[in-house]
Specification:
The protein has 55 residues and is mainly β. The chain has no helices and four strands. Helices cover 0% and strands 64% of the residues. It is elongated.
């Protein structure tokens, strides 16, 4: 499986807003994406992962 993370910039002070999305792309495999924004609305990090699904 693979995992990739990008740190785009240092975040502004305060909490981060994070969204996560997962979709099955083929039998037993899942593509996951996470994005993080700071309080000024700047994209500060993103991550993608191809993972196996355990039943």
């Amino acid at each position: 499986m693979t995992f990739t993370a990008y740190l785009r910039r240092l975040p502004a002070p305060g909490p981060l807003r994070v969204t996560m999305h997962a979709a099955e792309i083929t039998s037993g495999r899942m593509d996951e994406t996470a994005l993080a924004w700071d309080t000024k609305g700047n994209l500060v990090a993103q991550a993608t992962q191809l993972a196996a699904i355990r039943h």
